[in-house]
Design a protein that fits this description.
Layout: H1 5-15, E1 44-48, E2 54-58, E3 61-65, E4 99-103, H2 114-120, E5 124-130, H3 134-139, E6 147-150, E7 154-158, E8 161-166, E9 186-190, E10 195-198, H4 207-215, E11 218-224, H5 239-248, E12 251-257, H6 271-282, E13 286-287, E14 295-297, H7 308-314
Parallel strand pairs: 3-4, 4-5, 5-6, 10-11, 11-12, 12-13
Antiparallel strand pairs: 1-2, 1-14, 2-3, 7-8, 8-9, 9-10
Helix pairs in contact: 4-5, 5-6
Amino acid sequence: MGMSLGSLAGMLRDQFKRDSRRRPPGPIPVVPLSLPAELPSDGVRVTWFGHSAFLLEFEGRRLLFDPMLSPSPSPVPGFGSKRYSGGSLPLEPEDFPMLDAIILSHDHYDHLDKASIRKLRNKAHYFIVPLGVKKRLIQWGVDPGRITERGWWEELQVAGLTLACTPARHFSGRGLGDRNGTLWCSWVILGERHRVFFSGDSGYAPHFKDIGDKYGPFDLTMMECGQYDERWAAIHMMPEQTVQAHLDVRGGLLIPVHWAAFTLGFHAWDDPVERAVLAAHAHGVRIATPRIGETVDAMAGDYPQTAWWRETTIR
């Protein structure tokens, strides 16, 4: 990240600065989710759980990404930023039906959660992870035979789909002694008729265009948008860069994620979506802004566009 002493001092000062806009004034709304036993054999539907956790129903398969479903993304239970929804989730981990796969982008606490994995470890046929993350899942009770690791630009077949582990510009680690000991990545999901891209966590860089050239265009992109700061722009995109990255990968419908669950940066809690919507409109990008738990049909002409967070802000 290349932090200077001045930047570090500024971050420490900002950490203790009181700013009510970093969190919503009350719990944000959550739409309860009920999943039928059988899925349609076609289509692309996505349900966002807040931050970067989402369920992708893709050509008859169910894939769960970065399922951090605990109250706080902290190594110490009870500490750290608390979930904006007050702990409410669209669907509790114990209530998920069997999933085709759980897919992880990297091992940071706000993406890879021990408690969530333990609750979901028997709910998925496969766990797909970047290099080095397998060992963590094994420690938490996941059957090693159901875990597959991949490095950048490597593909695999899962439930009749092609998944590609693609680059991201970020870092990894869960403690003081394991910095960059595992890989971080984005993911491409390819079916017979549709394509989806998930950015994982990443700063803006040329890899987005490389991914678009190789695998685009995409029907849907789930793009990181939140917890940013100019001081760490190398590893987290600003909202305007989120929209540009969507254009670089040749995306169709954009859903901004990595916001609306926790305060991990210094910006106002709703700043990511406000800026992303403005940038999307300026560039003619189709952008959906679902409530947490609201399912989006990416192939339909009608998708959520209401500014629901403004109602939350003035409540």
